């Protein structure tokens, strides 16, 4: 089954404790992206990657890092999480055949930073 | 710069009655427009997509949307609401710039279906 998976689905942590949210897709998509969803704000892009070893900032990259060492994986790293990063996070992927704009989304990771 | 405005944050309709979710967009170029749906505790799923072909776009689960350039609108409709349609709906505009396929999301419309 074609899908985007994220782990963990739920995470409660404390300020300053480094964490990684994993994202993996099995569709051989070149393009992957991370979004955060906050009430009343819709989804906002954090980082995106057009292919392996190619990443760039989205609209709200502060406090986040990403890497793209393999085509299927695109982890989101929070080096020193803060309470304002409490949010619902989505990973998405797409490919050239879809013009990169028809994106497949993972199930989401709900992060709480205390 | 591109943007979308969803005119209603919450819409309630009775089961079996029509659904109308309103979206206006702003884009410098001929836009690609989408509607995504998010069911509770689920990821987002593409409902339908407009990319400068037919202005009336049909999607999954009986939904459709009409692109009206003169009104800069892309409203989502369904003739008869079903209980399973209860979800949050996002209008999205796409713009390709600097190599990034950037999706700009509206703030969402929560659809409630009254039995």
Topology:
The complex is a heterodimer of chains A (114) and B (115).
Chain A: E1 4-7, E2 10-13, E3 19-25, E4 31-38, E5 42-51, E6 54-57, E7 65-66, E8 76-78, E9 87-94, E10 104-105, E11 109-113
Parallel strand pairs in A: 2-11
Antiparallel strand pairs in A: 1-3, 3-8, 4-5, 4-9, 5-6, 7-8, 9-10, 9-11
Chain B: E1 3-6, E2 10-14, E3 19-21, E4 23-26, E5 32-38, E6 44-50, E7 56-58, E8 64-68, E9 73-78, E10 87-97, E11 100-105, E12 109-114
Parallel strand pairs in B: 2-12
Antiparallel strand pairs in B: 1-4, 3-9, 5-6, 5-10, 7-8, 8-9, 10-11, 10-12
Please tell me about this protein's structure.
The complex is a heterodimer of chains A (114) and B (115). With 114 residues, chain A is mainly beta. Chain A has strands spanning 4-7, 10-13, 19-25, 31-38, 42-51, 54-57, 65-66, 76-78, 87-94, 104-105, 109-113. In chain A, the strands form two sheets. In chain A, strands 2, 4, 5, 6, 9, 10 and 11 form a seven-stranded mixed sheet that branches. Chain A has a four-stranded antiparallel sheet with strand order 1-3-8-7, with no helix packed on it. The model of chain A has no long low-confidence stretch (mean pLDDT 93). With 115 residues, chain B is mainly β. Chain B is 0% helix and 58% strand. Chain B has strands at residues 3-6, 10-14, 19-21, 23-26, 32-38, 44-50, 56-58, 64-68, 73-78, 87-97, 100-105, 109-114. In chain B, the strands form three sheets. In chain B, strands 2, 5, 6, 10, 11 and 12 form a six-stranded mixed sheet that branches. The model of chain B has no long low-confidence stretch (mean pLDDT 90). Chains A and B meet through strand 5 and strand 9 of A and strand 5, strand 6, strand 10 and strand 11 of B.
């Amino acid at each position: 089954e074609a899908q985007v998976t994220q782990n963990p689905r739920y995470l409660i942590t404390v300020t300053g404790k480094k964490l990684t949210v994993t994202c993996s897709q099995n569709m051989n998509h070149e393009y992957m992206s991370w979004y955060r969803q906050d009430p009343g704000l819709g989804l906002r892009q954090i980082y995106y990657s057009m292919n392996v070893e190619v990443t760039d900032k989205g609209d709200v990259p502060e406090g986040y890092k990403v890497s793209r060492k393999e085509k299927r994986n695109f982890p989101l790293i929070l080096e020193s999480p803060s309470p304002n990063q409490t949010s619902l996070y989505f990973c998405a992927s797409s490919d050239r055949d879809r013009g990169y704009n028809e994106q497949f989304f993972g199930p989401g990771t709900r992060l709480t930073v205390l | 710069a591109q943007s979308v405005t969803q005119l209603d944050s919450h819409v309630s309709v009775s089961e079996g009655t029509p659904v109308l979710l309103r979206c206006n967009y702003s884009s410098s170029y001929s836009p690609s427009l989408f509607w995504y749906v998010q069911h509770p505790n689920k990821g987002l799923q593409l409902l339908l997509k407009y990319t400068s072909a037919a202005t009336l776009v049909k999607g999954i689960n009986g939904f459709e949307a009409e692109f009206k350039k003169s009104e800069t609108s892309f409203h989502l409709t369904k003739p008869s609401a079903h209980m399973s349609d209860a979800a949050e709906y996002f209008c999205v505009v796409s713009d390709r710039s600097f190599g990034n396929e950037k999706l700009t999301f509206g703030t969402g419309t929560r659809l409630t279906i009254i039995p």
